[in-house]
Amino acid sequence: GLPSCLLCLCLGTSVYCDDADLEHIPALPPDTAYLYARFNRIGAVRAGDFRGLEKLKRIDLSSNSISWADADAFRLLPSLQELLLPENRLTALPELPRSIGVHVYWGSSLLGFVSALSPQDLKQLQFLHLSDNQLDFIPVPLPESLRSLHLQNNNIQTMHEDTFCDSQDQGQIRQALEDIRLDGNPINLSLFPNAFFCLPRLPTGRFS
């Protein structure tokens, strides 16, 4: 295919491929740090799509038709900080690099939280947004670094008392986790009062 800078707009280390009628990710310049390829028809992410892109920090593939990603598609990117995949057709979470540390947004991808790398392994993760999916559980254990957890509009019906807090440590205060959204799930949060004792704020959701 054509080089990405003929198909897209290259400005410094950023490549803009929004609404370019792409069916696959084009070959990118080796110094690419930011890729925006939203509103295309990309159906899959292959292991070689980002090979050698050691400076790649942000990948935004929102609003495509991605139904699968190779195991090594993202895992081998040492600098990746932000990965955005809302409004696709994913049914599983791709394996992520341990370096990822800021945002993972899945939006309304049809996502089952299945990965060789659990949220606990993402020790710098601050924002985990998994709204508008088909999750029937809260992915645990959650890293201590987490500040925001959005799980609204899923199918979560129950939770364990250790979901957010350590039930064996009644003096625990989880200061960082201030934003939890569970609204739009078939769960009555008032049935699990012992799950919230360490939080600075109660989750948003149904308490009746």
Explained architecture:
- This protein is mainly beta.
- Helices cover 4% and strands 15% of the residues.
- The protein is built from 2 helices and 11 strands; from the N terminus they run αββββββαβββββ.
- The strands form 2 sheets. The protein has a 9-stranded mixed sheet. It has a two-stranded parallel sheet with strand order 4-6.
- A hairpin with a 2-residue loop joins strand 1 (9-11) and strand 2.
- The protein is elongated and about 55 Å long.
- Mean pLDDT is 84; it is low at 112-117.
Spatial separation of the terminal alpha carbons: 57 Å
Instruction: Determine Rg (CA atoms, Å).
Output: 18 Å
Uncertain segments: 112-117
- How many DSSP-defined strands? 11
Main sheet record: 9 strands, mixed
Beta percentage is 5-15%
Helix content: under 10%
Helix-strand pattern: HEEEEEEHEEEEE
Overall geometric form: elongated
- What value does the average pLDDT take? 84
Secondary-structure content class: mainly beta
Number of helices: 2
Strand order of the largest sheet: 1-2-3-5-7-8-9-10-11
Protein name: OPT protein
Subcellular location: Secreted, Extracellular space, Extracellular matrix
Family: Belongs to the small leucine-rich proteoglycan (SLRP) family. SLRP class III subfamily.
InterPro entries: Leu-rich_rpt, Leu-rich_rpt_typical-subtyp, LRR_dom_sf, LRRNT, Mimecan/Epiphycan/Opticin
What does the secondary structure layout of this molecule look like, with pairings?
Elements: H1 4-7, E1 9-11, E2 14-16, E3 34-36, E4 44-45, E5 58-60, E6 68-69, H2 72-75, E7 82-84, E8 103-105, E9 127-129, E10 148-150, E11 179-181
Parallel strand pairs: 2-3, 3-5, 4-6, 5-7, 7-8, 8-9, 9-10, 10-11
Antiparallel strand pairs: 1-2
